[in-house]
Design brief:
- With about 325 residues, the protein is α/β, with parallel strands linked by helices.
- The protein has twelve helices and 13 strands.
- The longest helix is centred in the first third of the chain and has 14 residues.
- The model has no long low-confidence stretch (mean pLDDT about 90).
């Protein structure tokens, strides 16, 4: 059970086999929404904590009023500001509307297509998270209600930036963590294009991150991992895999394609007025997000193998030699 009575008070406990042996707990003030869609169980409750309203999908926290900025701003602005002129953007998932809100801060963007398979998520977001779902009226936004993986397969060479705001790799989001999906996304990008996907946490999922990054390097000029601090996600952090293609001129002129494609240094900057509206992202935070703990760097960039049965070896320095 995700909701339990403890000493006469109702608590939500995020108990899940994806992070065995640990659980975040928030005290519940009131259940606001509790429905099952065709795809998943959607719940919203008001917490007694500073986190405010909380959105759950199949019992897993997706957003809260307090810390959503750490996720929404970073997953959007890392790829968008790493691109010299993003005009056409695709969002896969993101029905709560937060990523759309951040994309629409960029005046250079001319078109935003969002693929959300579950319309009930959109409805819940608009009703219970109006400050997050504040950009739906922007005329640049076009909604496709359907499978994001199928959509990218049918739209080749169309987008400058693709943001995959998926939930964890179970249920309807499972296909968004496959090598086939990353290849389809690559084909949907224009030259110089960037893709940014939700990529779990280095504390629990290094084997998955290593698998995704290794596979993506076969098709992209640059593959990098960045992360953000967000207290209501497992281990207090979540990462992003940023996969990038070099611009056409860099390839034609035989320049270093990795340098031309990398995302850890902004190629565009917000003006002060725009930055003042943000809560988490900054140019300094952009650069810092790519600086990884030594154990994570060894696996993601240096090919160190992960012992899935004893992940602590990586942190204690007793890891086995390859």
């Amino acid at each position: 059970m995700s909701f339990q009575e403890i000493n006469g008070r109702t608590w939500f406990l995020e108990i899940n086999d994806q992070w065995k042996g640990q659980a975040l707990a928030l005290e519940v003030e009131k259940m606001l929404f509790d429905e099952k869609s065709k795809y998943q169980h959607i719940q919203v409750f008001k917490s007694k904590s500073p986190f405010g309203n909380v959105l759950l999908l199949d019992g897993v926290i997706q957003i809260t009023d307090l810390d959503e900025c750490a996720y929404q701003e970073m997953i959007a602005h890392l790829p968008l500001n790493a691109h010299a002129n993003p005009e056409n953007v695709l969002v896969i998932g993101g029905g709560d509307g937060g990523v759309l809100r951040e994309i629409c801060r960029h005046e250079c963007v001319k078109e935003v297509v969002i693929c959300e398979i579950d319309q009930m998520v959109i409805q819940a977001g608009k009703r219970y998270f109006p400050k997050i779902a504040s950009a739906w009226s922007d005329e640049r936004i076009h909604l496709f209600c359907g499978d994001g993986a199928e959509f990218v397969r049918k739209n080749k060479n169309r987008f400058d930036v693709i943001i995959c705001d998926s939930s964890d790799p179970v249920g309807p989001a499972k296909t968004l963590f496959s090598q086939q999906f990353y290849e389809s996304v690559r084909q949907a990008l224009r030259p110089g294009g960037k893709v940014c996907t939700q990529a779990e946490t280095v504390w629990l999922d290094l084997d998955l991150i290593h698998h995704l990054a290794s596979g993506a390097r076969k098709g992209y000029h640059s593959v990098q991992y960045a992360y953000t601090q967000i207290p209501t996600y497992p281990c207090g952090m979540i990462g992003f895999l940023l996969c990038s293609l070099a611009p056409k001129e860099a390839i034609d002129e035989k320049k270093d394609t990795y340098e031309a494609a990398r995302c850890d240094k902004p190629r565009r900057r917000f003006d002060k007025k725009a930055l003042d509206r943000l809560k988490y992202y900054s140019e300094e935070m952009h650069k810092a997000a790519f600086v990884l703990p030594a154990f994570a760097r060894r696996v993601i960039y240096e090919g160190k193998k992960v012992d899935t049965q004893n992940k602590m070896d990586l942190m204690t320095g007793s890891e086995k030699k390859d």
